[in-house]
Amino acid sequence: MPLSKTLGTCALGAVLSASFLATPPMARAQLTPPDTLLPTAGTKEVGVAANYSFNGDKPYAVQGSYGVFIAPTVEFGGVAAISGASHSTTASSVGAFADYYFASGADNPLLPYLGVFAGYSHVHDDSASVGAQGGVKYFFNPSI
């Protein structure tokens, strides 16, 4: 084999070996501690919900939300929604929320929370609202 082919083969082998050694194995993701599933400061949450009914007046609703964890236990965000039906006035609303999460242990990805929200809506007249909210979130992995 010519020297150039031998050097090329050795170089390619060295690059592939280095990239294989530098890449963590696929099973490594399964071995990470469960506490890595909990949010950290800077974690962003995006939510989208929609519904539509083919029956009757064909009501629909679309809602989107965006939140940012400023700490593992505190999230601030905003919500916007639009809803209506084929023979009614469209309603729209915007609002903001702040949620406090109660850490349920490093080995448990369940996050119960309590929060407050404030919003503005428009149907026929403008109105404002404030209220409390609560629930539980479950993190399947660092992205979901």
What would your notes on this structure say?
This protein is α+β, with helices and mostly antiparallel strands and 144 residues long. The chain is built from two helices and six strands; from the N terminus they run ααββββββ. The protein has helices at residues 3-22, 28-31; strands spanning 44-52, 60-71, 74-84, 91-101, 110-122, 126-138. A hairpin with a 3-residue loop joins strand 5 (110-122) and strand 6. The termini are far apart.
**Secondary-structure content class:** alpha+beta
Question: Proportion of β residues?
Answer: over 45%
Biggest beta sheet attributes: 6 strands, antiparallel
Low-confidence stretches: 1-35
Number of strands: 6
Order of helices and strands: HHEEEEEE
Bin the helical content.
Answer: 10-25%
Global outline: elongated
End-to-end separation in angstroms reads: 52 Å
Please write out the topology.
Layout lengths: L2 H20 L5 H4 L12 E9 L7 E12 L2 E11 L6 E11 L8 E13 L3 E13 L6
Summed up, what is this model?
The chain is α+β, with helices and mostly antiparallel strands. The protein has helices at 3-22, 28-31; strands spanning 44-52, 60-71, 74-84, 91-101, 110-122, 126-138.
Features:
144 residues, alpha+beta, six-stranded antiparallel β-sheet, 17% helix, 48% strand, elongated
